[in-house]
Amino acid sequence: MDYANLSSELIKISLARQKIDEFSVRLRELLAVYEEAEATRCFIAECEKMSTELDNERKSHADELRQINQDINHLEDTLKGVKGNKDSKKEIIARKYDEIERELRSTNQLLRESGVPEEELLSREQFLPLIEDELFSLCFPLILHSVRNFAFNFEIKLNETIIGTVIGVIR
């Protein structure tokens, strides 16, 4: 064997070894970059998944908020209607009170003309309790009761007056 050939072969083997070492270094660098890229890809996939879940959650809450807002709007509309109804009923009650007061004055005038003493005349306090906004619901049954009593007492007073007038005429 020739030393020159052997030397040449050893140099080739040495160069091949260097190239293999360089290749191994480059391969390890490539694998490190690939692992980083794979980790980034997994992270992006996880983020996209989480983003989709959060978006679905947001839509779910948006539907719930929309429903809550619809319920609030419906409740406000109902409340406005009830308040309007309450106001119109208060106006009706006020008109009826005025009518009853006029009738009370007229009735008392007739009772006076029929000879009923002033202390026995019908009074506003007997039949027309004051209604305040806060007490409307509490006073309304009282008003109905007073009006019923008014009608009953009026009938009794009227009968007493008629009987008294008839007896006075007979004597």
Automatic annotation (TrEMBL):
One of its GO terms (biological process) is positive regulation of neuron differentiation. Signal peptide: none annotated. Keywords: Coiled coil. One of its GO terms (cellular component) is nucleus. It holds the Pfam family zf-C4H2. Residues 20-110 form a coiled coil. This is C4H2-type domain-containing protein.
